[in-house]
Design a protein that fits this description.
Elements: H1 3-13, E1 14-23, H2 28-43, H3 47-60, E2 64-66, E3 69-70, E4 73-76, E5 83-93, E6 103-112, H4 117-130, H5 133-141, H6 145-154
Parallel strand pairs: 1-5, 3-6, 4-6
Antiparallel strand pairs: 2-3, 5-6
Helix pairs in contact: 1-6, 2-3
Amino acid sequence: MSDDYSASMIGDLLASGSIAPRLTAATKRQVLSTISEIAARTFRLKAARVFDALTEREALGPTGVGHGVAIPHARVEGLDRMRGIFVRVTPPIDFGAVDDKPVDLVFAILSPASSGSEHLRALARVARALRSAEIRSQLRQASGVDAIRAVLVRDARPSAA
């Protein structure tokens, strides 16, 4: 797979309306509920179905990956292809992250119920992008939806060594 595929893959996950640059929430449950509402509005899904899928997955183990990042993910009935939702949470909240640090950058991945390895590939690609301290910093400083999308699409490409 080429570098361009990586960048376009993350960009393809994010539809217009699937980025929330400033979400005020006090709990992980509120964040997952808002993500579910965004998914319902943007991808014509039932919010309750998305919320149930995300919370069932969280019950298996928190999706906070460290450095203020969480990547909740689930397979959802009614999706025709992989979708992503990015939210920046203010102030950062407890997400049960592996490093016990609060989370402010959340990239949710929703996959069709029948998806197989592509779900895992998308998860790995998003995790790899958000592992970069530079990308996390740029996402925290980005001024709005377009700036956030540009960081995610541009910086999702692995750098040539």
